[in-house]
Amino acid sequence: MAPTVRLPPDFDSEYSDPDSEYSDESDIDSVFDNDGHEGSECGSDETISEESPDDDEVDFKDAVNLFGGNTHPPEYYQNAVKDFDESHYDGQDYSPGSDILLDAIEDTWKEFCKVVDRDPKASYASLSIAILCNFFNWRLNQKVNKDGRKLCGIKKKSSLSTYWKVFRLCVERATGDKIDPKLNRKMHRALRDLAKKHGLSDEKRVNRCMTIEDLSEQIQTTLSTTEKSFQLGEIRILAVLFLLLLAPAGARPASILRLRFGDIRVVLARDPEGGAHNILTRFTLAFTKTYLGVKDAKTFTVPENFFDPSLFLSPHVYLLGILFRHQVFKAPSLVSPDKLDILDIHEGEKELPLPLKKEFDDCLVFRRAFKTLTGYDTSMDAPITYGMMAGWIRRIGEILGFMYATIPYSLRYAAANGFDQSGSFPANSRIVPRSSVANEHDV
Fold it and tell me: How many angstroms separate the first and last alpha carbons of the chain?
């Protein structure tokens, strides 16, 4: 039997040609040593066997033998146990948005402690009903923040209750312990008294509905109104696209706003009835809640329209418009929509993929406008935030004269209602309120 061989570096490159009859063998030899290998053009068996092994491989084997099969000596783990920081795992994991809210309330607590001349951290450990009642009474009396800007204030009893719940999380984060249950019960009574004293409303938010007619009016007004400026026509189109992508998916609005060009797939699909080919677009929502661990990405197929034969409610029109606007298609000939008509699908295939340029994979679809010397342009990396989009949608609802302010979550609630009723998540999920009965005019 020939001795174990180690092939020289240029062996693989010599036989890596796919047309060569030796390509399969060279691929195997590049991974494993072949005991049955006999003389080759690279030299004799004796010459190859005398080649010195890689220095890094020798060092690794020596380290493994030296430390009893492990890559580190016992002292490494002894010191690691001694120096381990357990406090890093004491706290609860929160989303970035929740952390911002907790930090804001903690800053308010520090301001109050300055007023009453108390240490903030020490006060967490010695909370009493007296200090808590006065803290919330002080907060309700605040009209401006520390920067002198006017505060919106707490106007509803439910908001005060939420503020108390978040404050309890601040205490738990600072001390590692929850508030005493007896003190918690006392605070519920104190909050009722404070709500009555400051005249807080106990009216609950109505369950807002959005029918197909409402969605149609919202989009038409967004496109045509002069009472709301969007700085760029592209931003106006993105405001419409946001609604049309949110409606069928029922996803979190923030995940739609984080959509990247790399999350979009466009294909030319064969019509099963033998008609003209159709454009099919899919998008994958990878940016859902991930602070508790990575979730499986969900892929949605964008419907061609919402029970409307026109292109007015067609997400394809707006999405393809954005793709052509930035010349995202990889094929150099796809520079305008009319170029799609000349494409054909290979015989025996059902779809023709239309890949996008790789350099756009991490580029956001929903990007804000910024001022330039000549006007406005689309930013390359600054995203449209949820607050910005929600403000635009609410403003359009005010222009339309809707009884209740329009919010993006109206569409999310409606899609969830459609899921509750059907047990599936079709692309044309009904856009109705949870408490309403669907009718033929609702999506």
Answer: 76
